Amino acid sequence: MSARALIINADDLGYDPAVTRGILRSMREGVVSSATFMVNTPFSEAAAREARGLSIGLHLNLARGTPVWSGFPRALLGEDGGFVEARAASLPPDVVEAEVFAQLARLAGLLGRPATHVDVHKHLHRHPHVLEGLARAARASGLPVRSIDPGMRRALESHGVATNAHFIGDAGTDAYWTLERFEQHLASLPADGVIELMCHPGYRPETLKSGYAAQREVELETFLHPKAREVLAKAGVVPADFRVLTPGG
User: Fold this and answer.
1) What is the pLDDT of residues 10-30, one digit of tens each?
2) Separation CA 134–CA 152 (nearest Å)
3) Residue 203 belongs to what domain range?
């Protein structure tokens, strides 16, 4: 039986300045232990300056904004030269692999150190070609990748890529992580393995429209609440980050 570890990871660092502020507060004042960073937004550089010293992975972005890899085929992008989420499934693995390497290099340049792991905005690695390209780059870089279901977990492991054993989280019409739901999940965590709890704390976005806006503030309140620490202590859990899955981590 493998040891149990819980990673509380906040997605979307760099997405918007208000979202970034909330994520950083959830890490510095709350119980969030890890975050993933979008490196191809107008707010990425500022987010990186503010996030130095924290545990940060790559939030691979193939859904919006422009590519980081200069060789990204123009024919695979939208009329404005940016990603189109609906086209992600048809991206060739080699193109995905090159873009992953480029985004990882940009993250390292902005933060002054490598990513701790990789996950994907909108879970676009559910598409086989995206998963293939990502797995190649992650294996070469020695980085874990988020898996969201058993099939993805098996696929990543078949590529020699470390991944979490369990995954909890969603982002829908209502805020997912209320204090009540956090307490319920903590009371019934799996007995072993690395568990990732995906979350989206933040302040309501200032610069763009998002289907997950006011919900972020509910999640932020949850992870800042004193009872969140009490629930973790009761469960005997100290949140970790994805370095538990890397040699020497």
Assistant:
1) 999 999 999 999 999 999 999
2) 12
3) 4-245
